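Methods, example record. To illustrate the input and output format used throughout this study, we show the complete record for Isopentenyl-diphosphate delta-isomerase. The sequence lines were provided to the predictor; the line carrying structure tokens was produced by it.
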Amino acid sequence: MSETANRKDDHIRIIETEDVETTGSGFADIELVHEALPEVHRGEVDTTTTLLGHELAAPIVIESMTGGHPNTTELNRALAAAAQRTDVAMGVGSQRAGLEVDDEEILESYTVVRDVAPDAFLYGNVGAAQLLEYDVADVEAAVEMIDADAMAIHLNFLQEAVQPEGDVDARGCLGAIERVADELSVPVIVKETGNGISRETATRLADAGVDAVDVAGQGGTTWSGIESHRAAAVDADRQERLGRLFRAWGVPTAVSTLEAAAVHDCVIASGGVRSGLDVAKAIALGARAGGLAKPFLAPAGRGVDAVVELIETLVLELRTAMFVTGSASVSELRDTERVVLGRTKEYLDRR
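The corresponding predicted structure is encoded as:
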């Protein structure tokens, strides 16, 4: 396996076995105002929505997680098959490994998603740092690899800074993103990887023509924490300490969602989203959908039915939140009354 492929395997192992969760997403500070007379039947609450021109049964995204090592093929198979069955969106992990090496087993870890989910909304994934090496044709190759409906460009510079082998040259990335957004055959999503996107950065991305922003804020899985574990395994003490120091760095997801939605029309909220109620809160803050990653990992290891069960639970929780706020549709939920409390309010006030 290439260095990139082995790193993907390391990431999944660490997420499954180590404490790599942080708190502070801000969703606990968001209260949706209860409607005692909702005047709607819960069974008739409509959770369907549109994301980048694709209709989904619910505003839920299985966030980019994996691919790039043969050990991840069955995980992606289960996730994609569940997305097909429940009609939610799904992204694959970074496709760098598939673009680097002509290896059928590695490619299958990605291509399996379209094989089992011919109708699902699937998006690909490349890193912003890699855009400095790739031209648009390379990104199109990633689109073609999974017949993607959209392409995510991930921003993971804190993770790269902690990686012993990380790429820390961020010069020229915004221009490269703008070029891809202008020329690629499918819509472009720019996503963080756990540290959030500020209003100012969301504005720059909107001006660059990106079609959606996935805030992936602080408060869920910490990639600096994951890389700290990897550094410890190779006795890279300085990098291990760096990862621990920045473990909880970033813009909280609730703050990032509010700020990004103020300047961009299509925002996906992820980072510490752990329930359908969190998805409802994210939409009330202005998001078009809520995304989860780690909560799907263990179910994916058990198979398609376990992933479907989790999605159905999330939809039930979302539907119930819509019912008790009197929101008959997702568009009504976006307009529902909410109250911002605590650290999140203080953060926003000081901004």
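Annotations derived from this record:
The longest strand covers residues 122-127.
The longest helix spans residues 304-323.
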